[in-house]
Each structure stands twice: as C-alpha cells, then as structure tokens.
Amino acid sequence: STRLGIIAAMPQELQAFLQAMPDEHLQRIGGREVWVGHWRGHEVVAALSGIGKVAASITATLLIARFGVGRLLFTGVAGGIGPGVAVGDIVVATELLQHDMDASPLFPRHELPGRGISRIATSPALTHALQQAAQHTLGVTQGQRVHTGLIVSGDRFVSSRAEVQALQAELPDALAVEMEGAAIAQVCLDFGVPFGVVRSISDRADDDAHVDFLQFVAEVASPHAVAMVDSV
Length: 232
Ligand code: ADE
Known about the structure:
About 35% of the residues lie in helices and about 30% in strands. By secondary structure, the protein is α/β, with parallel strands linked by helices.
C-alpha cells in the first residue's frame, strides 16, 4: 500500500501519535519537523505544518514530492460553526473550501482561479474510514456527535459572533472553520493524492474561542489523532 502522510498544525495535535509511533526518525526540512516510520505495518510520514494555509501547503507539497506519500490525512482541531456542532464533537470533511478566497469580480467569490470550482472533495474511502474511527472514538463518551460535510479554511482565527454569522450567511452548510484543510486539499488535488481531513471541535469560534481552544487542544485533540490514523 502507499505511504501515508499525516499532518497536524500544532505539536499538541500530533503528540500522542508520535509517542506511539515506535520507530520514527526525525528529519528537519524547511523549518519543519518530519518523522518517518511505521504504524501497524504502514509506512508513515508525520509532520507538523505550523498554522495557516501557506504553512500547510508547503508541508503537504513536501510530503508528496519529497517523501513520496500517496495518501494524506490532516488532523487537529476546529471551531464549530454549524448548528449543533458542539465542543467535543468530531467533524469529518467531505468537502473543503477557502472562505477567504475572493478574486471577484474576475472569478466568483470562493472560486479557485483557473480551476472553476470552489469546493474540493475528499477521498470517499479515507473519509469513510475516518467516520468509522470517529464513531468508535466517541463511543465511550456521552452526547458527542460525529458530523460529516463542509469544512472551511482561511488565514484567520475566527473569534467573534459577528464573524461566525457572516460565515454562516455566505456558507450555510459549513460545519467547522479552521486554517489549513482547504489548502492541503488544493495541493492534493494538483498532485492527484487522495486525502482526508478530521477535526475535533475545540470552540464555537465565538468570543470565548481562544480560551476553549488552548484547553481543548492539549486534552482531547492529541489522543483523537491516534484513533484516526488507526482507521486507515
Ligand atoms: N481552529 C480551532 N478553532 C478555530 C477557530 N475558531 N478559527 C479558526 N481556526 C480554528
């Protein structure tokens, strides 16, 4: 099977996975940390991208072009913006969109110039596996849900009610907002690499978002990542 890439933005999001990866070998490239090793018989390349679309794009490109990954997972946390998407829930992406892409009036709002689309679909197989893993992960906890659908990305930590309302108004089916997913989606589209994105909801992207985020990222996101990689 093809080598699996796994990327997270922040160390807390990948820590438990790296601790469980038995034979990882650290390499540094472009200011990034990349771990090459194995996970349950798969060849795995894990990397921290740093935060934001550019950082994520560089990392995804490196893993594909330099480390030869043929499948890619992005894991981490996100702000919940869909109705009923609560802190502690998991969102598995079926599509990703860059909510801050706007080359209008040359191209329609959100459209990727030259591509003719604004939404990029994830791999159905990886997405199905992530959904199963998410259900399983939440199986022990009460009241938490798995959502599947649109995740939007932009170079902005969303932290006010007004911003959330603006996103909801223009993208009513968006479930969660984060800062990397749609960027790696574009890289994977260009290289023809199947990918999946899974996010644990750390906050509601409102005025308390920064407080909830910091607490959650350490406690919950990291163990979740292990379960997700287990699934594929
Ligand atoms: N990642 C986690 N929470 C977020 C938020 N509120 N905005 C953007 N990215 C996030």
